């Protein structure tokens, strides 16, 4: 890891090559689309895919199968990180960002056109998995490129602030995706039973958010095609320091940074997926009595001993509660930037990670204690999410020199997605089922992840004053 401090920057080195507004928009639009795609898929994985692509006859098994395809994308992300990281460090940030965005957009659009199990049998699940893997492959190169656009073009002393703009794509993508699902669900006469989708929604309504992504991708491509390369990459290229094999150099010379960066993101990823996928599943799952009543009304069998109850909110009600929480996510993502610029990335993240570890003990007391505390839980969890996610836009790129920065930050970010994201929904559902409907063990899982992240942060040097031109 480069640790040289830029004590005498030259005007040429620090001259902005892109307008600040263009930097902000280019870094924000791609991650907004990335997280929009994630939330659209996550919502469909709860409401749609278990019924249309994995009709196993057992609700919990179908849900786990659906989440398995959801998590499969995380396995493809490190492969995408290596491919797009190589492209980004060899050819340039701009070309790579355009390629990753286009690949991701095509895959998401095609999911909206897929036939279901009723039409082509098991091949429906195979095609869904394939498109999900392509999504993951493309996302593997998206975040890192967006973070580099923001931080390599940032004014001195404001890298963490600029680095929060690609992070802001997460809450914005959530709100767009879920409000679109909400409007579609509401307009298609969603029934009163919690967790039950209408026939029209299951037939064609769920496809609209996937198809709509094409509009966002076109806007994103238009913005990114107007970018020029950062001075950091151009200086490296002119000096002949571009690596022929960035991944080999990253693993040979910067493997400690790769390991520390991977575990530094662990708690962030686990919290992120628990606050979105798990809470949506847990919140909209009918309670025991409601599920039994529904089964009797529809003439189905019901095994109370095997059923895993949830909070029993309707999808429409709970999604509004999530949007309420995500507002805090967006606000505190922006708040985290100035904090990390002033106090340092490491110190800021250490204190936030300690708070996340303590938050894990509140899952059962707060989620099982009534509507007001559920809302407070969501607000608190998403506040912590903003405070831990925001500084990562600068923290991970700062760990690596320019010639392997795209590859190094992308690999760390996306390998962490396997450890903290691919497994999180599956582990959470399993722990929830094992505890007979209590979310207590799910919270302890988050606490364990936070402890590992805390150890990584303690072992990581401060990166606030690292020279990103090196």
Describe the structure.
The structure is a single chain. With 470 residues, the protein is mainly alpha-helical. It has a single domain (18-459), classed as MFS general substrate transporter like domains (Growth Hormone, Chain: A), CATH 1.20.1250.20. It is built from 23 helices and no strands. The N and C termini lie close together (10 Å).
State the low-pLDDT regions, or none. Answer: 1-15
Q: What number of domains?
A: 1
Overall mean pLDDT: 84
CATH architecture: Up-down Bundle
**Rg over CA atoms:** 22 Å
Note the beta-strand portion: under 5%
**What's the end-to-end separation, in Å?**
10 Å
The number of helical runs is 23
**Secondary-structure content class:** mainly alpha
What is the CATH level 1 assignment? Mainly Alpha
Order of helices and strands: HHHHHHHHHHHHHHHHHHHHHHH
Number of strands: 0
At a glance:
The protein has about 475 residues and is mainly alpha-helical.
Quickly list its features:
470 residues, mainly alpha, Growth Hormone, Chain: A, 23 helices, disordered N terminus
SSE diagram, text form:
Blueprint: H1 11-14, H2 20-47, H3 49-52, H4 59-90, H5 93-111, H6 117-120, H7 123-152, H8 159-187, H9 199-205, H10 207-224, H11 231-238, H12 246-253, H13 255-264, H14 266-284, H15 288-297, H16 315-343, H17 345-359, H18 363-367, H19 371-389, H20 392-398, H21 405-422, H22 424-434, H23 440-459
Helix pairs in contact: 2-4, 2-5, 2-7, 2-8, 2-10, 2-14, 4-5, 4-7, 4-21, 4-22, 5-7, 5-10, 7-8, 7-21, 8-16, 8-20, 13-21, 13-23, 14-16, 14-19, 14-21, 14-22, 14-23, 16-17, 16-19, 17-19, 17-23, 22-23
């Amino acid at each position: 890891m480069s640790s040289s401090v830029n004590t005498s920057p030259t005007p040429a080195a620090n001259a902005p090559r892109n307008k600040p507004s263009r930097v902000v928009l280019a870094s924000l639009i791609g991650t907004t689309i990335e997280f929009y795609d994630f939330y659209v898929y996550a919502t469909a994985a709860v409401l749609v895919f278990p019924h249309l692509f994995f009709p196993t006859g057992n609700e919990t098994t179908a849900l786990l199968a659906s989440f398995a395809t959801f998590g499969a994308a995380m396995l493809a992300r490190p492969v995408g990180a290596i491919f797009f990281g190589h492209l980004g460090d060899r050819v340039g940030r701009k070309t790579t960002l355009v390629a990753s965005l286009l690949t991701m957009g095509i895959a998401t659009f095609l999911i909206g056109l897929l036939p279901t199990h009723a039409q082509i049998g098991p091949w429906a699940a195979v095609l869904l998995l394939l498109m999900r893997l392509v999504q993951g492959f493309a996302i593997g190169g998206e975040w890192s490129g967006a973070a580099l656009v923001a931080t390599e073009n940032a004014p001195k002393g404001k890298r963490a602030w600029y680095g929060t703009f690609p992070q802001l794509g997460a809450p914005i993508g959530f709100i767009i995706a879920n409000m679109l699902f909400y409007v579609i669900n509401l307009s298609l006469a969603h029934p009163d039973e919690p967790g039950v989708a209408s026939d029209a929604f299951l037939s064609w309504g769920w496809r609209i958010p996937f198809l709509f992504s094409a509009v966002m991708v076109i806007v994103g491509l238009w913005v990114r095609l107007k970018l020029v390369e950062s001075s950091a990459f151009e200086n490296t290229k002119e000096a002949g320091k571009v690596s022929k094999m960035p991944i080999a150099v990253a693993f040979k010379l910067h493997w400690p940074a790769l390991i520390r960066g991977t575990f530094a993101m662990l708690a962030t990823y686990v919290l992120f997926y628990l606050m979105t996928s798990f809470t949506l599943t847990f919140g909209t799952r009918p309670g025991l009595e409601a599920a039994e009543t529904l089964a009797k009304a529809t003439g189905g069998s019901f095994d109370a001993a095997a059923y895993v109850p949830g909070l029993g909110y309707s999808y429409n009600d709970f999604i509004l509660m999530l949007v309420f929480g995500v507002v805090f996510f967006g606000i505190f993502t922006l708040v985290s930037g100035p904090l990390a610029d002033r106090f340092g990335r490491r110190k800021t993240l250490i204190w936030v990670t300690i708070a996340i570890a303590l938050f894990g003990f509140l899952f059962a007391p707060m989620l099982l204690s009534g509507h007001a505390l559920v809302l407070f839980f969501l607000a608190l969890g998403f506040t912590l999410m903003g405070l831990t996610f925001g500084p990562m836009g600068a923290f991970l790129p700062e760990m690596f020199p320019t010639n392997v920065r795209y590859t190094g930050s992308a690999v760390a970010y996306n390998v962490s997605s396997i450890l903290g994201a691919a497994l999180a929904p599956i582990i959470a559902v399993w722990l929830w089922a094992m505890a007979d409907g209590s979310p207590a063990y799910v919270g302890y899982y988050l606490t364990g992840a936070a402890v590992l992240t805390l150890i990584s942060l303690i072992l990581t040097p401060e990166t606030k004053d690292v020279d990103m031109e090196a």
